[in-house]
Automatic annotation (TrEMBL):
Pfam entry (one): Methyltransf_24
This protein's name: Methyltransferase
Record PANTHER family: PUTATIVE (AFU_ORTHOLOGUE AFUA_6G01830)-RELATED
Top-level taxonomic group: Bacteria
């Protein structure tokens, strides 16, 4: 029997499906920004504009499985119980983090949480549904809005911060 990467066979399949959807979008994202660069329309991509925001509004933009697993295992090794994730998107990497928090909390007793932020309303709704379907909603505090506001009053301590935007 093959071991479950996330130590939850019921979570592996939906996460793999989300990862597959995200990977399928990479080509379109790459083409979009390459075309803009070719037109000279994207000289400074560090500050995304409205057109780019609109284009990315329905993209998963998920951390790849290998990187997400590294974060998951790092959280387990750190015994992390309080994690901040900036830019949850559809919540794919949030699921990896929340599963780690749940495992640590179950082993140590007590609770843990992933504090995630997202600004895009459709992504927030999709992420909440993904969290619920995975059975991890109780481990996630999804804060809606601009991260400069949603994380302003963040209480310490924080064991790990994932900033992948």
């Amino acid at each position: 029997m093959i071991a479950s990467p996330l130590q939850s066979p019921g979570l592996d399949r939906p996460v793999a499906e989300l990862q597959h959807r995200s990977a399928d979008q990479i080509s379109a994202i790459t083409t979009y920004f390459a075309d803009r660069a070719e037109r000279g329309d994207a000289a400074d991509l560090t500050d995304l504009d409205t057109a780019a925001d609109t284009f990315l509004a329905d993209k998963l933009v998920a951390l790849e499985h290998g990187k997400a697993m590294l974060c998951h295992r790092l959280c387990l090794a750190l015994r992390a119980r309080r994690i901040v994730e900036v830019g949850t998107s559809y919540g794919v990497s949030t699921l990896y983090l929340a599963q780690a928090v749940r495992l640590v909390a179950e082993a140590d007793g007590g609770t843990g949480t992933v504090i995630a932020t997202e600004q895009e309303p459709a992504k927030i709704a999709a992420a909440r549904e993904n969290f619920r379907a995975a059975g991890l909603a109780s481990c996630i505090d999804l804060r809606e809005g601009d991260l400069r506001t949603t994380l302003r009053d963040l209480e310490a301590p924080v064991d790990l911060a994932l900033i992948d935007i």
